[in-house]
Amino acid sequence: MKPAHKDVSDLTEDEARAELARLAKEIAKHDRAYYQKDEPVISDAAYDALRHRNAAIESRFPDLKRDDSPSERVGAAPAEEFTEVEHLVPMYSLGNAFDAGDVEDFIKRVRRFLGLDEDETLALTAEPKIDGLSANLRYENGELVVGATRGDGRTGENVTENLRTLADIPKTLKGSGWPKRVEVRGEVYMSHDDFAALNERQRKQGKAEYKNPRNAAAGSLRQLDPAVTARRPLKFFAYAWGDVSEPLGETQLEAVERLDAFGFTTNPLMERVESLEAALKVYEEIEAQRSRLGYDIDGVVYKVDRLAWQDRLGYVSRSPRWAIAYKFSPEKATTRLERIEIQVGRTGAMTPVAKLEPVTVGGVVVSNATLHNEDEIARKDVREGDFVVVQRAGDVIPQIVEAVKKRRPNDAKPYEFPTVCPCPLKTPAVREVNERTGEKGAVRRCTGEFACPYQRREHLKHFVSRSAFDIEGLGGKQVEEFYDDGVIAEPADIFTLKARDEAGEIEPPLREREGWGEKSVSNLFDAIAARREIDLWRFLNALGIRHVGETTARLLATVYGSWDAFFETAKKADDADSSKRQTLIDIDGVGQVAADSIGRFFDEAHNAEALDRLLEQVSIRDAEAPAAESPVSGKTVVFTGSLEKFTREEAKARAQSLGAKVSSSVSGKTDYVVAGPGAGSKLKKAEELGVEVLSEQEWLDLIAG
Ligand code: AMP
After folding, report:
1. Which of 94, 488, 568, 650 could be stapled to 646 by a disulfide with Cβ–Cβ 3.0 to 4.6 Å?
2. Domains assigned to the chain
3. Is the CB–ligand 1 distance for residue 286 below 6 Å?
4. Is it true that the peptide bond before 414 is cis, omega within 30 degrees of 0?
5. Which Pfam families match (predicted)?
6. Residue of 187, 302, 318 to test ligand 1 pocket, by largest number of atoms within 8 Å of CB
7. Pairing mode, if any, of strands 143-149 and 96-97?
8. Each residue's pLDDT tens digit, 493-533
């Protein structure tokens, strides 16, 4: 018999620490036995007792809570255990529509891009947006060879064996005539009934319950042992495809019917519509059935039906231009607004945030909501102390719809928006006047820039964000803590963290901090080291230059190719006479405002110094020339005059996707001028400079070849 354990109230701190370590190990062992092998070695009651003891010690010594604490875990499936799969065709996300007007705009945008005549029909498919997690299934000669999660869209986790256990996923495609290579995509989800039953089992076995069916599906799919996944009731709807050796059809509907014929389950509610009115009607019908479907959906997805048009529309940033998700109306709740707090963003923008008495909206506890800006507060006349209606749509930040005036306390005063930054420096905050329109901007900004500690903190958070340095284990929350503690003051400090920690310069050392331990600290250092070499676009985005977001950063990376080439230009970006500045402005999608902002950024002494320190720590990978085999990659093209087969927008998008740089003015660096009827000064200039001039058809022949 083991000696009886001491009563929790008698433990010393050292004993408690040792005891928590022992319990973490022991519970993890039992979790593995249960989750991965499904062979528990102790009774449920004994397992419960271990968890209770762990929880009791943690509640007496909250500071000792380990970062691998069993109370924070469900199941046992660390992501590092799966190998990575690079998606041959990225898995995209979807743009959102929140009302009928947004859907109408989407249709107009598509029509404009394709240059459709008024009497030409634009057919769309409409189908439920399943609230699960997407997966990509690769079949070669009809056999399932690899299955992966979406991950960040470019790289996912290899969960082939787990996906094989789903009844809805054929191991071998049915019928014949499937392409030799086909990737089928769709959503893994769990039905409401299965979810309830799973949680009931978890509860009985004293294990943590899953929050919602989507989490349960994700947790079940990412089990280390496929045998465990096999026992979880996961389902799959197929609705899309990735890499295919031959087209699946001419329309979305046809292609999805093929998936059905391959043996997949496709959603029975999918329909084809030919007008905005019909599209909105399907939305209403699907919403009306929502509560009876038996699985979670969070909106309706519209896709352009004709696949040739989808190809032409292509992608912008992370979403297709040819699809949109119309989300269901947000859920609402009423609560008290305790006070309004001002948050300072990376660019100094002061955003008013409503601090609320916590309230559940659509299954999530909400205690903060955005009030957007000064004018919005005035327009809605929202006051501290008011009862307010809060709404939440999907992953969108909760918003305040209105104040309930009838319940307003007598002493509530109109809110006065501060005119200084809430940071200790109390720098004046101003509303900039737009030079062109002469109008006052909606946003009040702190003018402190790099002196403002709040802006610096936000810069750091942006620096580590997903589309910037994306350091695993170092998210916004961690960076914020390190910043507030003086451990990290600027980006370069991230890369000296390990050396400083090992030299004992950080007090207390990282591994002794709350939420950290030996293992997580060493993982963090590995993750940081892995980012010492960084893609150019990520680096450019990470700098957090105003008006240079992810899309512009990618564009700049493609155009300049290397950091040195970009930097040479950037240094000259605010010199009105510099030809380098002109090259920036000429890039379609950059323009004056961004060029000015780039110029200002690199002129600022603090930035220049911080950048130097950062460059000592990291090396920047040159941009890969996209589609190197394209006959126009790296070439500079100017479109002028009217085009007949394409809209200007489409022609540009297509050229850029083939790796060409599209410029808005002709210079000695221009490779081609594509001139349509009505071309004027640009054509003349091209002729003067001896730049090759192509007709629209010649251009099409060139890119086709
Ligand atoms: P989001 O992640 O909100 O940008 O939405 C994109 C995701 O919606 C995709 O990655 C899919 O996982 C999911 N989705 C669910 N149902 C569908 C559907 N019918 N068509 C396309 N995407 C869908």
Report:
1. 650
2. 3-72 (1.10.287.610), 95-327 (3.30.470.30), 330-447 (2.40.50.140), 449-531 (1.10.150.20), 535-621 (1.10.150.20), 636-704 (3.40.50.10190)
3. no
4. no
5. BRCT, DNA_ligase_aden, HHH_2, OB_DNA_ligase
6. 187
7. unpaired
8. 999 999 999 999 999 999 999 889 999 999 999 999 999 99
